[in-house]
């Protein structure tokens, strides 16, 4: 930014603040082309700052009021009699006059085209997030399970959104579009939170899970849900009936395995404690065939009651030193 | 004598006179007043005066797009403004003549 423009803007902001108690119309009309004038002045071949050439902003504002026939500033002790609306307006104006606020406003203005693009994308993405169709909707949304259609719709929507953004709309319509944009953003956040897209992150991060999900997959490894644990001793002996607890001493429970490679149906049988309660944290889990030769889909299948352990690459430890 | 105090009283008529010659925007009016010799004329006073004359119905205004930046608001005198200027001119003449006579009077009476 040229220093002249910055200086003019600072001065204008200070004058604006002094006029903050005036009704918006009066203030707006007074300041209407002052910005341009101050910029021109600051850009002139004169090294003196504006506050020297024009006087302090407060004095400038007072002259402006007097010449325009507007009431003088009600400052200090009289401020308690100023109406709430005017005080709110004055506060808002002083906020707007802060360099940080102006800078933020300018930055937001620069980012508007990016928002237009995002808006077009979100319009297509949002409905897709609601559909639990098992098709990935991110980054390319898939309306009707079709990514190509999604990409085309995104292109059209982005073009339309940018065209809308570049147009000057009447104020009420502008507010309506802005409100729609905020709603769209909020709705996308909510839908994203519930969507399949974020579900993986949900489980991995240990965020609250629905009870249904918790009973389906109470334990996840990096490879997916854990449905059983096969313990071995250090010398490679398979162990049975091992009770496992987590770092806080809570029994470790795993998911239920519903589907088996041989197509047979099995039911989970937990060993029983003395009080008759099932001990679900005893590993490996004990699955029994449900009905001899009964496949999942009702067709006969070759089922083996003895469930072989998976092949595991057991480590070999160095022999213990002999005393 | 402080000329700025005198200026306050005649700023309305000075601004009207400048705008009667040619339509102008705020800064332009300030420059023309200074160019005419009223070097002490205050920036803010001119802006405020233009606004007040406009609200009083003595000026009309229109907006002209500018290549360099935001649109410029031009002010133009209307019939009401012309009649105000005419009245003010008469008042000023009478006043100025009276003061002239008064200032010269000591010599004439002597």
TrEMBL record, chain B:
> Which InterPro entries does the entry mention?
Metal_resp_DNA-bind_regulator (IPR052509), Tscrpt_reg_PadR_N (IPR005149), WH-like_DNA-bd_sf (IPR036388), WH_DNA-bd_sf (IPR036390)
Entry protein name? Transcriptional regulator, PadR family
For this protein, the record's Pfam families field holds:
PadR (PF03551)
PANTHER family registered for this protein in UniProt: PADR-FAMILY TRANSCRIPTIONAL REGULATOR (PTHR33169), TRANSCRIPTIONAL REGULATOR, PADR FAMILY (PTHR33169:SF24)
User: What residue range is the signal peptide?
Assistant: none
**From which domain of life does this come?**
Bacteria
Q: Could you tell me which residue ranges the Transcription regulator PadR N-terminal domain spans?
A: 15-86
SUPFAM superfamilies recorded: Winged helix' DNA-binding domain
